[in-house]
């Protein structure tokens, strides 16, 4: 039975850092897997500021950030390999960090040069998983659902509470998935106003009061009335959420409480009946989870912390394994592309 050993790297829109995982996959038709090691590396404030402003850089500045971030990724992966005495690796699968996501105009851009990762680690590196799907008319997102379908088939649905909340589930024998709403990206933005990188345990939100005026305004986002396939990026956060939050005269705790309620409302009404697997950093935000429970009748299941923290990195490792074995890793039923495809460029 053929086994593949892959390192997955994920850098999400919440800008909190990178998740690395080392996983083993068995390519025998059932794709049995084991998550062997995982590590979260927090971004320094300097890297966060660079990435936050990268969409406003000149072309040459963006290329420099791309190279520098690739070097940083490569060095962190090399250290991860040494710390865990990893001896066998078939490939590194890197999501990179999304700077632009505009499938309507035929592009989605992730930085963190895979050439630099390969040069530093001397390991085959797979990246740029979205571009083929976008070229085929798809959203290029979300990509995780194929992993949900085959690795987590014992759940009715899978919900990720990351910078952006997204869900996937089977409907009429097809995998359906889409981004629901901005999630930790908004909560972290507000926490920063009080000098915190995030709202630990949802304590700030829990201390606030829900403001019905702001809640109604947040719920009017035109994205919510559009049909899948659909996806979100930082552009929508900058254009819609930030002006509403910046123009609100209420306290930050009240904005946090209102935003958590808004997220819970938008997600709760869309979770299918059955058992839903919850992962992503938002799982640890009690205020957000309570809002979610209030607005859904589905059974919410939170796995062990390793799976909460590293599920997305694990699935990108899985996408890398599929690319390595020349198998479909992007579903048109999810993205709206004109056909399923094999995404990812191989370096090395």
Characterization of this structure:
By secondary structure, this protein is of the alpha/beta class. It is built from 13 helices and 13 strands. It folds into two domains: 3-145 and 311-347, Nucleotidyltransferase, domain 5, CATH 3.30.420.40; 153-305, Nucleotidyltransferase, domain 5 (2-Layer Sandwich), CATH 3.30.420.40. It has helices spanning 45-53, 59-83, 114-121, 131-135, 145-151, 184-192, 203-206, 212-218, 234-247, 252-268, 286-294, 305-324, 332-335; strands at 3-11, 17-26, 33-42, 91-94, 97-102, 107-111, 125-127, 157-161, 164-171, 174-182, 275-279, 299-301, 345-347. The strands form three sheets. It has a six-stranded mixed β-sheet. Strand 8 and strand 9 (164-171) form a beta hairpin. The chain is globular, with a radius of gyration of 19 Å. The chain starts with a strand and ends with a strand.
Topology of this protein?
Elements: E1 3-11, E2 17-26, E3 33-42, H1 45-53, H2 59-83, E4 91-94, E5 97-102, E6 107-111, H3 114-121, E7 125-127, H4 131-135, H5 145-151, E8 157-161, E9 164-171, E10 174-182, H6 184-192, H7 203-206, H8 212-218, H9 234-247, H10 252-268, E11 275-279, H11 286-294, E12 299-301, H12 305-324, H13 332-335, E13 345-347
Helix pairs in contact: 2-3, 6-10, 8-10, 10-11
Q: Strands of the biggest beta sheet: in what spatial order? A: 3-2-1-4-7-13
Largest sheet: 6 strands, mixed
As residue ranges, the low-confidence spans are none
Query: CATH first level of the largest domain: which class?
Result: Alpha Beta
CATH arch. level architecture of the largest domain: 2-Layer Sandwich
């Amino acid at each position: 039975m053929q086994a593949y050993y892959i390192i997955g790297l994920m850098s999400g829109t919440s800008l909190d850092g990178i998740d690395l995982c080392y996983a083993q996959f068995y390519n025998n038709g059932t794709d049995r897997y084991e998550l062997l090691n995982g590590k979260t590396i927090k971004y320094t404030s300097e890297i966060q500021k660079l990435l936050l402003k990268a969409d406003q850089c000149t072309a040459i500045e963006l290329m420099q950030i791309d190279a520098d971030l690739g070097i940083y990724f490569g060095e962190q992966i090399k250290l991860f390999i040494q710390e865990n005495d990893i001896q066998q690796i078939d490939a590194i699968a890197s999501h990179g960090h999304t700077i632009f996501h505009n499938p309507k105009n035929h592009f989605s851009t992730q930085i963190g040069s895979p050439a630099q990762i390969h040069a530093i680690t001397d390991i085959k590196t797979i990246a740029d998983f979205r571009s083929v799907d976008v070229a085929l008319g798809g959203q290029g997102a979300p990509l995780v659902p194929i992993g949900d379908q085959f690795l987590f088939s014992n759940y009715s649905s899978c919900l990720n509470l990351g910078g952006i909340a997204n869900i996937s589930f089977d409907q009429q024998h097809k995998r359906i998935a889409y981004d629901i709403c901005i999630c930790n990206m908004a909560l972290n933005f507000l926490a920063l106003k009080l000098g915190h990188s995030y709202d630990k345990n949802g304590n700030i939100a829990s201390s606030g009061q829900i403001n019905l005026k702001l809640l109604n305004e947040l719920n009017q986002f035109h994205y919510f009335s559009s049909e899948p396939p659909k996806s979100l990026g930082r552009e929508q956060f900058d254009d819609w959420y930030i002006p509403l939050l910046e123009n609100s005269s209420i306290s930050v705790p009240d904005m946090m409480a209102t935003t958590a309620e808004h997220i819970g409302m938008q997600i709760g009404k869309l979770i299918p009946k059955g058992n839903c697997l919850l992962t992503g950093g938002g799982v640890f935000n009690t205020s957000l989870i309570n809002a979610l429970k209030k607005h859904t009748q589905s059974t919410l299941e939170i796995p062990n912390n390793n799976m909460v923290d590293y599920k997305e990195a694990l699935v990108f490792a899985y996408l890398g394994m599929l690319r390595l074995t020349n198998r479909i890793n992007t579903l048109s039923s999810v993205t709206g592309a004109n056909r399923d495809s094999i995404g990812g460029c191989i370096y090395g």
